[in-house]
Design a protein that fits this description.
The chain is an alpha/beta fold and about 350 residues long. About 40% of the residues lie in helices and about 15% in strands.
């Protein structure tokens, strides 16, 4: 709510030009000013500022909602977006949840972008195409491929091919955005709040790329990066809640203790996402997607493989090793990257 733009009728609308001229655009800008500052910068009496504070509070304060009302709202919400991995969908109560942010994190080459492309293909092929773009694909790593998107959609269709005209409708329904800086990404997300664009899915591949490019090392760089990530997370969560759609973001990895790798971007980002899915690969090539963080799903690990149709079940893979089914701090979880299966299960015999 702190990043919400200050727009509305009444007194707020009347003072909009003065607020903008004073550099006050969001609730955060407003509440960081004292009453005296507002009186002087807006050139209005004290009692007018008090009325303005009341209106801004009503605009930005989250409403009180009973638990029963929340349950009814969840029942009326859009159905989750299936992952096409049955065991994972069961754990997630149907798939990628609507109204929240799901993060897919893992080392390079394990299929993070493939999960995104598959989700985009499923949305576009299972929902009537509306005017404009239904899927917003924010491609910070320049990995988006129209050819791969079309291939996944074709392979997932019942007939194994797209009907005449479906390829064009598919590609026209995906809007690709390639921001060069975090500030540009924030501006675009902010503009979406008032946009009539009929979105069914938002993808960010990846959220770490711009954060790492825009801010250098050292304490100042870390602080600036965390502030930027907090703003991006707030925008994405607000967008998912207000539109009732799933938001998927991918994240890179960073070095961890013992030579392993863990999710990048630190604790602030880890706490910002609603669901965290971690991708692991063991020695021999077996891959697993693990539900590492969720408010409603149990700790689960599911074997998968990447096919022409995108992520798919891997029925011949060994059962998930104990390493992936052990409770722990989400901030300290290390991803398996070529780990021997005997090491992952914690015993001396392979499966």
């Amino acid at each position: 709510m702190a990043r919400r733009l200050l727009t509305g009728p009444g007194l707020l609308g009347e003072l909009q030009p003065r607020l903008n001229a004073s550099g006050i655009h969001t609730a955060h800008d407003f509440y960081t000013r004292t009453t005296l500052d507002l009186v002087e910068s807006l050139d209005v009496p004290y009692h007018v500022v008090q009325r303005l504070r009341e209106q801004v509070a009503q605009l930005t304060a989250p409403p009180l909602v009973t638990a029963s009302a929340m349950l009814r709202q969840q029942g009326d919400a859009a159905h989750p977006l299936p992952t096409r991995l049955p065991d994972l969908d069961r754990a997630l109560h149907g798939g990628f949840p609507c109204g929240s942010v799901t993060e897919i994190v893992g080392p390079a080459g394990l299929g993070k972008t493939q999960f995104c492309l598959a989700a985009a293909a499923d949305i576009c092929c299972s929902t009537p195409i509306l005017a404009g773009a239904q899927v917003l694909y924010i491609d910070t790593e320049q990995k988006f491929s129209s050819l791969r998107l079309e291939e996944i959609a074709r392979q997932r269709s019942p007939e194994g091919r797209l009907a005449p005209g479906d390829k064009e409708r598919l590609l026209e329904s995906v809007l690709v955005l390639r921001p060069r800086h975090s500030h540009e990404l924030l501006a675009r997300l902010q503009a979406l709040e008032a946009s009539p664009l009929p979105l069914s899915l938002v993808l960010v591949d990846s959220v770490a790329q711009l954060a790492r490019l825009d801010h250098g090392p050292g304490v100042k760089g870390v602080v600036a990066r965390q502030q930027q990530l907090a703003a991006v997370a707030a925008r994405l969560k607000a967008l998912s809640r207000r539109r009732g759609i799933p938001v998927l973001v991918t994240n890179q990895v960073a070095g961890a203790g013992g030579g392993g790798v863990a999710a990048a971007l630190g604790p602030l980002w880890a706490h910002a996402v609603n669901t965290r899915l971690m991708l692991h690969q063991l020695e021999g090539g077996s891959r697993y997607v693990q539900v590492a963080k969720s408010a409603s799903a149990p700790l689960t690990a599911v074997a998968y493989r990447i096919t022409a149709a995108g992520p798919a079940p891997a029925p011949d893979a060994p059962p998930p090793p104990l390493l992936l089914l052990t409770e722990g701090d989400v901030l300290g979880q290390v991803m398996a990257q070529g780990t021997a299966y005997t090491d992952a299960i914690g015993v001396d015999e392979a499966w």
